[in-house]
Task: structure prediction
Amino acid sequence: KLAELVTDHVLCYIHRNELVSVVDSDRLTYEIRRDHTCTREMYYLSKGITPSEEVLNETRHEMGLDKNIVVRYVDWLNDFVHGDLGYSYHYGQDVNQQMLSKLPNTLKLAIFSFVVVLAFSIPLGIYSATHRHSLINSILKNISFLGLSLPNFWLALLLILFFSVKIQLFPVISGSSLKGLVLPVCCLSFPLICSY
Result:
């Protein structure tokens, strides 16, 4: 009852103001994800199990799919605000646990990338500022334009193709070693170095 009251108030506020496009896109994303990835029916069918109608109804009720769309959205938003990102049926664990298990590698990659960005961008920026009309400064400016215009995914593919497939200097998939971090760090650092 409270969720319905809150959603009615929020929807009235949204329609009176210019926040419709932001909330509509968020609601559209929510609906697409709910309809295509969150239904337990698809999970059962992907595992080769044909569930009975009773099991499907019980699962829909358990997941809250039998509620009004506005109530489901407010419930999801409430859970999201309180840090509950839900349960992954694909991996069989909470999304929070899954994200926490990936956090150490993500932090390691971010810290190494930050150090590389600082190590290269500050000296190159100082050099460019002190040698304005030199040939090396022109080369650095052109490389910067290239680095800013080249998409990250394309740079990553080029690095993998050249350094992992052709030369076989670095692994294609980074493991726990420092050698496996070189290509991802280069891919993340290069555009930032070029922007500074």
